[in-house]
Fold this sequence. Notes:
Elements lengths: L1 E6 L3 H11 L4 E6 L18 H7 L4 E2 L7 E7 L7 H4 L2 E9 L11 H7 L5 E7 L9 E7 L7 H22 L30 H11 L6 E4 L4 E4 L2 E6 L7 E4 L2 E6 L2 E5 L1
Parallel strand pairs: 1-2, 1-4, 2-3, 4-5
Antiparallel strand pairs: 5-6, 6-7, 8-9, 10-13, 11-12, 12-13
Amino acid sequence: MDVLFVGANGTFSFAALQALLRSSHRVIGVVTPDPNAGQLLPVLSADHTIITLSWAHHLPLWGLGDAPPAEVIAVACFPKRLPASFLQKARRAAVNIHPSRLPHYRGPAPLFWQLRDGVAPLGVTLHHLASELDTGDIVSQTDVTLPEGVGGPEADALLAEAGAGLLARALDKGDFGSTPQPSEGSYQSWPGAADWQVPPEWPVQRAFNFMRGTEEWRQAYTLPTRERLLQVTHASHYTMGEVQPGASRPEPHGWAVGFADGWLHVS
Length: 267
């Protein structure tokens, strides 16, 4: 089946396109946010982007207005709302890979919010595109268990590969069945300053996984302790044990901060 892939230059789009290229289906080209992407010179690059991946596989690159029709339009982490005129180019289905179990964690940063809330396992949904963001009928879903302390790019890759697997199975079967999303659900926008605070009442493993999984955002985390507000950027490890939440002690390369059931070691 012919597939037109739509994505951006991030780990999630790259991993999804890479997995789709390993399937038996034909990717006819790639749509990127940059309408001039097709005119970029194909220089050698170590960057893992959908542009360099497209060059490696001799795939044409288009902007939204230039892309041709296709049997299936497959989207993974595109930063713009896709107009109805573009989605109508899909003769069979226009679907999106979303890294959560919809209808929960709609919005532009679902991995951040699932890590912050301590969700385990995480989920991935293949769904039809609709006029409202992340509300289209569900094709299929699956769970993804992340390794402890995994970084954001690695988590994105695991979620994208799982989502590409859902897409490949739908393509293999030629079946893009539609199940309406349940009426309940949640939407979260981009995180604000308060969302980088890590409460000491959390289980220490939750705090560790949240910090490790969002570190590439390069935002300082605020850890409230009994003596001070600590501003840190990295969690190295944690140790379980009885401790008073909010306790803190200096260490050679940072601090140990008490959480509900252990010490988090940060710098």
